[in-house]
Amino acid sequence: MPTQSRRERARAERHELILRTARELAESIGWGAVTTRRLADAIDYSQPVLYGHFENMNAIADAVAIQGIEELIAVLRVARTTAPNPAAGLSALAKAYLEYASNHPAVYEAIFVRPTDLEFASADSPLLLKTAFAEFQAAIEPFAAGDDPETLTEVLWSALHGQATLAHARRLRPDQRDGRVELLVARLSGKNSPPSAK
Amino acid sequence: MPTQSRRERARAERHELILRTARELAESIGWGAVTTRRLADAIDYSQPVLYGHFENMNAIADAVAIQGIEELIAVLRVARTTAPNPAAGLSALAKAYLEYASNHPAVYEAIFVRPTDLEFASADSPLLLKTAFAEFQAAIEPFAAGDDPETLTEVLWSALHGQATLAHARRLRPDQRDGRVELLVARLSGKNSPPSAK
DNA sequence: CCAGAAATCTAGCAGCGCTAGATTTCCTAG
DNA sequence: CTAGGAAATCTAGCGCTGCTAGATTTCTGG
């Protein structure tokens, strides 16, 4: 192992340390309070070190977002493919999505809420977004009936995104999280209101 | 008219000037760029004058949000009550909501996106939120069937909110805005996929 | 062991929200 | 009509932000 390699390894480790710390900080104090000074302090280096790894503060949040969307894709895929049938798959995927958003609000914010240049910036991020989108589409497509599957997918994703963000902003009744997603899935998949009461 | 009154009138005018200017600035350059210095410059006063009218910058955005939600409520009510039947009313309300969000993105952001203390802060703002919520509920309630109307309302509102925010972030196909809302409304109201194709 | 390269830090800039204290403007009483 | 005091307004500045140039330290290869 040449010296060069050890340096590179140390550098890569610190790169991960920055990301991990940024993520932890964001989850505990919110992105708005994750400043270069605080982050540098937390990793025990001076601010300029951060700029040796990332172009700016925004790029750090973007990198956390990319890690997050990879996790999210995996979670969605497991939820969907583990289910015994399409209806259960759709329901599991929807619940898994909201659960991820609820358990990792700062990461979710980094991915989908924060004003991001991530759209067309990094070369691989649009691909990841497309992959995530494909998970939604695979889950809802069996219920497309005569409608355009892509449009239906956008409707599903938007509906879940809305529930995630409004729930996080405490604008929806917390105890009804499951009720909302179940009702949404039921109506979107066409299996509508139960025969009569209950 | 005693002197006191003229002063008060001038003060009220400037109050409105601040709000109007803040709103215009936000719509043209985004809330992130609406700073106390820029806003003060735009109204041709120094920064401290702003603090004679509002507690802080956030309170200005909150005030814009309150103006906005009043507008939005009126828009929703007209859309809903003008329609000839419940189905048309729901559709009109949904489209009006998305249109308002699209036409006044900064105001929409002030109301529903910006991290706000508006929840329990101002005395009248929760009432306004409840009133807006009631509009949604009135529109969707006829289609509740056996389901809880409040939950269904939360589902509707969340779904529209998601479409509004993701569309603004350019993460949904712009040309499919109407298609999405129509599909959403159709599925939520139980009038599902057309008999066969097309 | 030592020169040069690489890594890291110190110190600083401009802009942010916000405010204390100086200054100006205005109203009123004599 | 003017003097004085209250009200309105501004200047200047604090501590924070993201970010960077240049000094300094650390490490590496000859």
UniProtKB/TrEMBL annotation, chains A, B:
Keywords: DNA-binding, Transcription, Transcription regulation
GO molecular function: DNA-binding transcription factor activity; transcription cis-regulatory region binding
Segments of the chain annotated as binding DNA: 35-54
Domain HTH tetR-type as annotated: residue spans: 12-72
Keyword Transcription tagged: yes
Record-linked PROSITE patterns: HTH_TETR_2
InterPro entries according to UniProt: Homeodomain-like_sf, HTH-type_TetR-like_transc_reg, HTH_TetR, MT1864/Rv1816-like_C, Tet_transcr_reg_TetR-rel_C_sf
Top-level taxon of origin: Bacteria
SUPFAM superfamilies for this protein: Homeodomain-like, Tetracyclin repressor-like, C-terminal domain
Full protein name: TetR/AcrR family transcriptional regulator
